[in-house]
Amino acid sequence: MAVEQSAAFQTAVADSRKLTGKPSNDQLLELYALYKVGTGEDFAKSPEPGMFDLKASKYAHSIKLPISKGKAKRNAWKKHADEGLTPEKAQEQYVALVESLKESVGYDANKVPETVGSS
């Protein structure tokens, strides 16, 4: 389902690639989940990470066994999907989080944006 993206959301997406420091893993997961919901991607139609997605996750600090990076991202997205977060609200929260990160980890408007991986 295509969702109209606000100008503020589009700017925040671009700004997120110009952060000078690295957000925490929890913050990165939150950005990922809010982006997925904010762009209207359907969680129910997304493929689950494969059983051979064996990269140990840095995101699994609160459990005894490591989970894959893909599974950690999917779990963060699922949490918001289960809460019924609307794309519009997700976009607002994404913008607020990026603004907060600009203050806490730094931001350079002239930075060449980093390319985003597919994982």
From TrEMBL:
SUPFAM superfamilies membership: Acyl-CoA binding protein
Keywords noted in UniProt: Lipid-binding
Keyword Ribosomal protein appears in the UniProt entry: no
GO molecular function: fatty-acyl-CoA binding
Domain ACB as annotated: residue spans: 5-107
InterPro entries, sorted: Acyl-CoA-binding_protein, Acyl-CoA-binding_sf, FERM/acyl-CoA-bd_prot_sf
Family matches, as Gene3D superfamilies: 1.20.80.10
Keyword Kinase attributed: no
A GO biological-process term: fatty acid metabolic process
Family: Belongs to the ACBP family.
Protein name as it appears in the record: ACB domain-containing protein
Origin species: Clonostachys solani
